[in-house]
Amino acid sequence: MVEIITGVERRRNWRPEDKLRILAELNEPGAKFVDVARRNEVSRGLLWQWRDAQRRGTLVAEEAAFSRFLTDGRICLTNNAAERQLRGVALGRKAWMFAGSDRGGERAAAMYSLIATAKLNDVDPRAWLADVLARIANHPASRLHELLPWNWKAAQASPRRRGRLTVAAPGVVFTIARAAEMLGETVDLLDEIADQLEPEDGCLWIYDTDERATLGFTERGIESLKELIADQKR
To answer: Of 31, 33, 136, 137, which has the fewest Cβ atoms less than 10 A away?
Structure first.
């Protein structure tokens, strides 16, 4: 009774059907808020919360979301992993106490989420973000999944793609077959030499409409190939 009078709710796990039953009593003609709360031993503050949640349509939905881990083994029982990722924010908040605005806070939260996700997948956040931010403007929307940390990590580990940047064709780009014809060399030789080139050297991957990839070279890439071929023949 003291709990009801003072509004202090004791620790109790209310089932969704109990909440709906009590709210149904509250909606009966002539029902008084205080009487319903006292009769069901629930604080008035909690009863107000239930009624607001019912009006928003989230009373039962929230219960389903909070209990989903019981039927889906992929969902962690605790939030410890996310809380551990926030320790850096808590330790350094004296140095960056203010975000400047609500929008600044939202952007900071988004960046924290990206960085933490990369770390959880054993990906260097700085390298991943630098690559993704440079590519995303011209990256096809149908292949955005390739930029997710786990997919990006697998692509970087591939010997055919390590050290290269996948971008949309900037101006004139020659396929490896066309480059071999222009230089009078074999495709196999150019493919071997291309492993020494970086994206800034003009070595790119070109995707067709069927998402098939082929190696390509910009005009700068052709000049780089010429230099490497000359060095190899010395």
So the answer is: 137
How far is residue 112's CA from residue 89's CA, in Å, rounded to a whole number?
A: 9
pLDDT at 153: 86
Q: Which of 146, 208, 217, 212 is nearest to 183 (CA)?
A: 217
Q: What is the pTM of this model?
A: 0.38
Task: Give the Cα separation of 215 and 156 in Å (integer).
Answer: 16
Residue 141 is encoded by which pair of tokens?
């929307």
At 177, list the tokens: 């077959």
Does residue 145 lie within any of the structural domains?
yes
Residue 205 reports pLDDT greater than 60:
yes
Establish if 76 belongs to a structural domain.
Answer: no
**What is the pLDDT at residue 81?**
77
- Indicate if 26 and 63 belong to the same structural domain: yes
Is 75 inside a domain boundary? no
Q: Residue 25, Cα to own-chain centre: how many angstroms? A: 44
The confidence band for 224, taking pLDDT boundaries of 50, 70 and 90, is confident
